[in-house]
Design a protein that fits this description.
Blueprint: H1 2-18, H2 21-32, H3 52-67, E1 76-80, E2 83-90, H4 93-105, E3 111-118, H5 122-165, H6 168-174, H7 178-203, H8 208-227, H9 229-243, E4 252-255, E5 258-265, E6 269-273, E7 279-283, H10 284-289, E8 292-294, E9 300-310, H11 315-327, E10 339-345, E11 349-359, H12 365-383, H13 413-420, H14 427-438
Parallel strand pairs: 2-3
Antiparallel strand pairs: 1-2, 4-5, 4-8, 5-6, 6-7, 9-11, 10-11
Length: 452
């Protein structure tokens, strides 16, 4: 408040320096709360034939107008040479502006002097407010049947739209995708709500209000959109993923650095079950933008591993033996054929890279690869093909203890059969089926959806 007072005092001190009446009038109007009088139009021609008779006509015309309005009946009017002076007390600034406007519109008026004062009595204001509330109440009671009819129409369209949106069989004919069909139902419900709102406002003769409502809804929607941008992005990604499924249930996929069997795709995220049995929840926006590797889409999958042999060995014989070993192993496909390539020539060994193909529908990929490594190693041992080992320099102290020799244990035939079993492992697939049976959310992965 101190700063405001200082600013006002400074402005008052500067008025004589400015020497302009316009600034003084504006400041006076600001401090007194009066509205500024509209300046006389410079295009208006002042007649030279003004007389007492014309002043009397102006006064009579204004008095007849003011007498018809309760708020202006107490206003005193005097006219001299076309200059109208208004005196008295009015209830509000709006009434004051109305009186000035009427005076300026009368023919022959040159200028209007405003001597009106606004009544700021508390009792008078309360009385006026009470009268306005009474009038509003009477108008509301009179319009109550129309209000009830408009509300009934709006509720009827709301309920009808909700009933139609729940008829999923109707929308499934348009789109077999559950998510898209549900989205069409929600849009239909929204359209019925908007139609009911328009009809209700039309009954109330308030259609102009609809533009205001839509504008406010647009602003609120924009603000909410920025606030929940990630949620909206996930929702749109869910729509796109449900339209064209990049994978199916139980497909083994790798999404960025996450690998597992697909359990479900809902409206927010994709659920994977990792080989360790853990649940991995990935937002659909990440899935849509990620690099996806689907190991199940093509049932034939290639494995590889490296074997080092001594530089003095016959490389062609080692390659032939490794290929024959893979061709005789269960689980390794004959077509495409296994492949053995020389990958690199090192200081003390030659590195062979061995490739083989597995049908994942019949055999377990990891087990077949494990058996292939074991079989090639055993074949090389029997053929006397040396696989160099790292060389270490050991310093042995004189005080050494002789470690007890352990008798190597020989695996039983049953253990060997279990280790060498390369049949398909359905543990994770069973977990996915169990997850689907226990889940309450809708899975957007459907056999009817197009596949990428």
């Amino acid at each position: 408040m101190k700063h405001i007072r200082l600013l006002l005092i400074t402005c008052l001190l500067c008025l004589p320096v400015l020497n302009t009446s316009a600034h003084a009038d504006e400041l006076t109007n600001l401090l007194t709360g009066k509205t500024a009088d509209t300046a006389a139009s410079t295009d208006k021609v002042i007649s030279t034939g003004a007389s007492t008779q014309s002043d009397k006509k102006i006064r009579q015309r204004l008095q007849s107008i003011f007498s018809e309005l309760d708020a202006l009946k107490t206003v005193s009017i005097s006219v001299n040479n076309g200059v109208v002076t208004l005196d008295g007390e009015v209830d509000s600034s709006a009434t004051e502006s109305k009186a000035l406007q009427f005076a300026r519109q009368v023919e022959g008026v040159v200028e209007v002097e405003n001597n009106l004062s606004i009544n700021r009595s508390l009792g008078k204001r309360l009385q006026n407010t009470g009268n306005k509330l009474l009038v509003m109440g009477q108008q509301t009671i009179a319009a109550l049947p129309l209000l009830l009819l408009a509300l009934l129409v709006f509720l009827l369209f709301w309920l009808l739209g909700g009933w139609i949106s729940r008829r999923q069989s109707l929308f499934r004919r348009i789109s077999p995708n559950y998510f898209i069909a549900n989205l069409l139902g929600q849009i239909t419900h929204l359209l019925f709500i908007m139609l009911g709102l328009v009809l209700a406002l039309n009954l109330l003769d308030a259609t102009a209000l609809l533009g205001t409502i839509l504008g406010a809804a647009g602003i609120v929607g924009l603000a909410v959109g920025f606030a929940v941008r990630d949620t909206v992005e996930n929702y749109i990604a869910s729509i796109l993923l449900s339209v064209r499924n990049p994978f199916e249930v139980n497909d083994l996929v790798k999404i960025d650095s996450f690998e597992g069997n697909v359990a479900s795709l809902n409206s927010r995220a994709t659920i994977l079950i990792s080989p360790d049995g853990n649940h991995i929840r990935i937002p659909n926006a990440t899935v849509f933008k990620a690099i996806i590797t689907n190991f199940t889409r093509n049932p034939e999958r290639r494995f590889q591993f490296d074997v080092g042999v001594d530089t003095g060995q016959n490389l062609l014989a080692a390659q032939t033996l490794a290929m024959e070993t893979l061709q005789s192993m269960p689980g390794v496909l004959e077509e495409p054929k296994p492949l053995v390539l020389i990958e690199a020539l090192g200081d003390s060994n030659v590195q062979l890279r061995i490739f083989g193909w597995v049908d994942q529908r019949q055999h377990n990929f990891g087990k077949v690869r494990s058996e292939a490594i074991r079989g090639v190693k055993q074949a090389f041992d029997r053929a006397g093909i040396v696989m160099p080992e790292p060389i270490y320099n050991l310093r042995i102290n004189q005080q050494t203890e002789t470690a007890p020799t352990e008798t190597p244990q020989v695996a039983s035939a049953e253990d060997r059969r279990e280790v060498q079993d390369v049949s398909a492992d359905h543990t994770i697939e069973d977990k996915v089926r169990q997850e689907q049976s226990q889940s309450d959310s809708t899975n957007l992965l459907t056999p009817q959806a197009p596949k990428e």
